Amino acid sequence: MSTSGLHETVGISLERSTEIIDLFYDHFLEGYRNDPDPLVFTSDALHWILHEPTLSTGEMVYLTYFFTRIILLDAGEGADAKASGH
């Protein structure tokens, strides 16, 4: 499933899905650039998602899916490219 229709599946608006992704990036993108250890980043990010009081259950599901399927996959591909010298 792509993220394009996921917001509807979990019952949030497209505008709200954009807001929570922006909120996530505000909290974690700069930290990830400074210390890209995937275990630390993943633990911190998932803890924040599950404990952020402004997120509904549907928003937590949406953001967890977005994080695991989009951000971690992109980070893994970037690490693979660095390791292979590309």
Give the end-to-end Cα distance, rounded to a whole number of Å.
Answer: 29 Å
Beta strands, count: 0
Number of helices: 4
Radius of gyration based on Cα positions: 14 Å
Structure description:
This protein has one domain (6-84). 78% of the residues lie in helices and 0% in strands. It has 4 helices and no strands. It is globular and about 35 Å long.
Structure characteristics:
single chain, 4 helices, 86 residues, mainly alpha, 0% strand
Layout of secondary structure:
Layout: H1 6-9, H2 14-34, H3 38-51, H4 57-84
Summarize the structure.
The protein has 86 residues and is an all-alpha fold. The protein contains four helices and no strands. Helix 3 runs antiparallel to helix 4.
